[in-house]
Design a protein that fits this description.
The complex is a heterodimer of chains A (485) and B (57). Chain A is of the alpha/beta class. Chain A has a domain of 219 residues: FAD/NAD(P)-binding domain, CATH 3.50.50. Helix content of chain A is 25%, strand content 26%. In chain A, the strands form eight sheets. In chain A, strands 1, 2, 5, 6, 7, 8, 20 and 21 form an eight-stranded mixed beta sheet that branches. Chain A has a four-stranded parallel beta sheet with strand order 14-11-10-18. A three-stranded antiparallel beta sheet of chain A has the order 15-16-17, with no helix packed on it. With 57 residues, chain B is mainly alpha-helical. Chain B is built from three helices and one strand. Helix content of chain B is 65%, strand content 4%. Chain B starts with 5 loop residues before the first helix and ends with a strand. Classes of the chains: A alpha/beta (485), B mainly alpha (57). Chains A and B meet through helix 7, strand 14, helix 9, strand 24 and strand 26 of A and helix 1, helix 2, helix 3 and strand 1 of B.
């Protein structure tokens, strides 16, 4: 019997857990370790952040689902990985500290035969002074943050209803942030809410981002065909900004935030201040605070993890320059090269480099969107890790493993505003592959047939359908595995 | 080199006509677009869901 331990219960970890039980369940033990008691369908946090949904609409308790499926759940924070065991055991184990009320603070060691690291990111608000809910801005990264953001938004709307003009800043709070698509989506949701409240003419909305061009989305922008022409996501996004009267600050690294003021530096080295009454700025991500130790107890975190704190897998980490980047730099199996019974999936794996061209200001400030790896790619990676473990259990260490490189998979992004069936709009985008492959697709790096963008109510319906479909799937209801990641 | 003011670029971007804006909200047109976008997404998803087809030792 093998014991598979999964760290994290987000999109990647929860997907891995459910598939692990389905594929390996009989005779093998599946354990999930997550500090959170609830599953959060994060893409819908945007709607929580404008008050269109409640936290209850986007979350559910994990324990009953795992109990129903026969998965062991430890509500605990993983602190250390001991891949070689220690002087008293030859089995790899994870040291955890419980976070549930009944065992809060209690520490335990949990052995594993196979480990799937799907811890997601640490929200690194500390990288920018004054950023985040403990500073002067709000966030929509968690359902709790999003609930607070909705309250703050209602407060500025109330002020606008008295006839007072308000400045609204939305975007990313550091030069190395990712998830620009989420910031873009939140911008248009806030704009929609202001229209619905009848105060749009009293709001100055500015989108501040580390993207060098609008429509970059951390993937270097998209090229797709529309009305018989190839067009760019830059032009398409600019058109949307013009239509909705939203201003933009591009290529920006947010240096610090003071009450009512975002201090930023641009790629050209110039500095500026963006004043605000309401600001939602996403934080940069880094790996969670997880350390690794060898059998003798010496710390080996630098061998297992990249400097960003994300776990190293089968990627090319040589640090080659942008001009030499290849699709083949990206991991295929998500297996740790040092410990082949460890996999890292979702945001937890260390990408080899960015997808967008990284830039540096004359002052030496790095302004480089980090690669997005959430949603569909995360789910596919989680499933792949379990399929690989299944092969390893059945066929031993020489087993042939499947691959799911981000240079060989697509992603869909639906940025939707509004919540009813009749009122709303959305920008729907798909790209294939996520990481451009200029050998397979010499002109644009992506398949123009499978990369597209469209604006309209239909995208809004799709986003609503995805919300209900993926929560159904995550609850492991009848036929859940038929719904693709 | 100084960056171009993005708001100047935004001001030059194509503005949708009233007809385009109406089409984006028209229930019949959007129902057909809903089907078309879903088909495109299914095709793209199928391309990316082949974890065991390409294998490495």
């Amino acid at each position: 019997m093998a014991r598979v331990v999964i760290l994290g219960a987000g999109v990647a970890g929860h997907t891995a857990a459910l598939h692990a039980k389905r594929m390996l369940g009989k005779g093998n033990e599946i354990i999930v370790i997550s500090p959170n008691s609830k599953y959060n369908w994060i893409p819908s946090n945007i709607w929580v952040g404008v008050g269109r949904m409640s936290a209850e609409n986007v979350t559910f308790p994990l324990a009953p689902v795992y109990k129903k499926k026969g998965i062991t759940f430890h509500q605990a924070l993983a602190q250390e990985i001991h891949p070689e065991g220690d002087v008293s055991t030859g089995s790899g184990y994870v040291k955890v500290a419980y976070t549930d009320a009944s065992r809060n603070g209690e520490v335990a060691n949990i052995d594993y035969d196979y480990l799937v690291n799907a811890t997601g990111p640490k929200l690194n608000f500390a990288a920018t002074p004054g950023l985040g809910p403990d500073g002067h801005t709000v966030s929509v990264c968690t359902f709790g943050h999003a609930t607070e953001a909705a309250k703050s938004l209602q407060e500025v709307i109330a002020v606008m209803k008295t006839g007072k003009r308000q400045a609204i800043a939305i975007g990313v709070g550091h030069g190395t942030c990712t998830c620009e698509g989420a910031a873009f989506e939140y911008t248009f949701n806030v704009e929609h809410e202001l229209r619905a409240a009848g105060v749009r003419d009293l709001a100055d909305i500015t989108y501040i981002t580390n993207e060098y061009e609008l429509g970059d989305f951390g993937v270097g922008g998209l090229v797709f065909s529309q009305a018989g022409f190839q067009t760019t996501s830059k032009l398409w996004t600019e058109s949307l900004f013009r239509e909705r009267g939203i201003m933009a600050i591009l290529g920006a690294h947010v240096e610090k935030i003071e009450p009512g003021a975002v201090h930023y530096e641009l790629v050209d080295g110039t500095k500026g201040i963006l004043n605000f009454e309401f600001a939602m700025l996403l934080p940069p991500f880094r790996g969670v605070d997880l350390k690794a130790f060898d059998k003798a107890g010496n710390e080996i975190s630098d061998k297992l993890f990249a400097p960003s704190g994300f776990m190293k897998v089968d990627a090319d980490y040589s640090g080659k320059p942008y001009e030499e980047w290849l699709a083949s730099d990206w991991p295929k199996t998500y297996r740790n090269p040092l410990y082949p019974n460890i996999f890292a999936v979702g945001i937890a794996f260390a990408p080899p480099h960015q997808i967008s061209k990284p830039r540096k200001s004359p002052n030496g400030t790095v302004i480089a969107p980090s690669p997005p790896r959430t949603g569909m790619p995360s789910g596919i990676m989680g499933k792949l890790a379990v399929m690989s473990i299944n092969e390893l259990i059945k066929n031993g260490p020489t087993a042939t493993l499947g691959t799911a490189s981000m240079a060989d998979m697509g992603a869909a992004c639906v940025a939707s505003a509004g919540s009813g069936l009749r009122v709303g709009s959305a920008a729907s985008m798909t790209m294939y592959p996520v990481v451009p492959d200029y050998i397979a697709y010499p002109n644009t790096g992506r398949s123009v047939d499978d990369t597209f963008g469209e604006i309209g109510l239909a995208g809004h319906w799709i986003k609503l359908a995805l919300h209900y479909m993926f929560i159904y799937k995550a609850k492991a209801r009848f036929g859940w595995f038929l719904i693709p990641e | 080199m100084a960056m171009e003011n993005p708001n100047e670029s935004i001001a030059r971007a194509p503005l949708p006509t009233e007809k385009t804006l109406a089409q984006r909200q028209n229930l019949f047109i959007q129902l057909t677009r809903f089907c078309a976008i879903n088909l495109k997404m299914i095709k793209m998803i199928r391309k990316g869901h082949h974890p065991m087809e390409r294998r490495v030792k």
